């Protein structure tokens, strides 16, 4: 990735407001319509989001370890691929790993 494309830090619109989502695991019908509804069960929403958007060259190990036990890993990865999310760890994969996956897919 070119340096100019690189953005560090957590995007302002990334983090989920737990108040809007309600109790984890208990979904309201209207939340089901939300393409990001799966984030109600995401482990990263309960941990340090900084780990998921490391500085360039920073370690992604902690984030990936959290993803391993996340219940919505598949939805998370699908969402990231469908929306061409370029930054951060999604579904246990780094930006580079997702790029490779996209290439392989087509
Ligand atoms: S798979 Fe990882 S990045 Fe995705 S929601 Fe779960 S913990 Fe967060």
UniProtKB/TrEMBL annotation:
Coiled coil: none annotated. Its cofactor is [4Fe-4S] cluster. InterPro entries: 4FE4S_WBL (IPR034768), Whib (IPR003482). [4Fe-4S] cluster binds at residues 44, 67, 70, 76. Keywords: 4Fe-4S, Cytoplasm, Disulfide bond, DNA-binding, Iron, Iron-sulfur, Metal-binding, Transcription, Transcription regulation. The keyword Glycosyltransferase does not apply. Binds 1 [4Fe-4S] cluster per subunit. Following nitrosylation of the [4Fe-4S] cluster binds 1 [4Fe-8(NO)] cluster per subunit. Residues 43-100 form the 4Fe-4S Wbl-type domain. The Fe-S cluster can be nitrosylated by nitric oxide (NO). It is found in: Cytoplasm. Its main location: cytoplasm. Belongs to the WhiB family. Acts as a transcriptional regulator. Probably redox-responsive. The apo- but not holo-form probably binds DNA. This is Transcriptional regulator WhiB. It comes from Herbiconiux daphne. The lineage of its organism: Bacteria, Bacillati, Actinomycetota, Actinomycetes, Micrococcales.
């Amino acid at each position: 990735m070119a340096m100019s494309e690189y953005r560090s830090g957590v995007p302002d619109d990334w983090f989920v407001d737990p108040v809007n989502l309600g109790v984890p695991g208990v979904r309201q019908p209207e939340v089901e319509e939300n393409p990001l509804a799966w984030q109600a069960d995401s482990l990263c929403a309960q941990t340090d989001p900084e780990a998921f958007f490391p500085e360039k060259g920073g370690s992604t190990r902690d984030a990936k370890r959290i993803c391993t036990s996340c219940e919505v890993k598949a939805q998370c990865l699908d969402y990231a691929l469908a929306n061409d999310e370029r930054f951060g760890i999604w579904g246990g994969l780094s930006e580079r790993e997702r790029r490779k996956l996209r290439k392989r897919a087509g």
